Amino acid sequence: MYSHPNFLWLYALITTLISPTLALPSLPTTNPSSTSTVFQFTRNGTWLENLAVRPNGNLLATRLDAPELWLIDPANTNTAEAGSLFYTFPNATSLLGITEIDTDAYAVVAGNFSISTVPAPLVHT
């Protein structure tokens, strides 16, 4: 870069004038995305903790209240049949997270966690 004072002044002026145009906010969308239920558990008390999206669009969902990994097919229009138990982890009480470590290969955090043993939040006055 040149060290000539006029060049530096010109560079500073141009970047100052261009900067606001680069930071313009985008307009909110006028067509909000629609939402729909793709799968719903039949029993109450189910707590999904984390999701991973497979390359084919299916979802892998970990449960916090049970050591179960569920496979959910969002393309299935029958919400009662869209989800199925994929794997149950032995010697664990819950699953906490999932991440893709290679193409369609996942690492899952399994452990012994109970919601009933979590202390109540402190109230500060």
TrEMBL record:
Coiled coil: none annotated. InterPro entries: 6-blade_b-propeller_TolB-like, Hetero-Diels-Alderase-like. Residues 1-23 form the signal peptide. The keyword Signal applies. The keyword Zinc does not apply. Keywords: Signal. SUPFAM superfamilies: Calcium-dependent phosphotriesterase. PANTHER family: NHL REPEAT-CONTAINING PROTEIN-RELATED (PTHR42060), SMP-30_GLUCONOLACTONASE_LRE-LIKE REGION DOMAIN-CONTAINING PROTEIN (PTHR42060:SF3). This is Uncharacterized protein. It comes from Aspergillus viridinutans. The lineage of its organism: Eukaryota, Fungi, Dikarya, Ascomycota, Pezizomycotina.
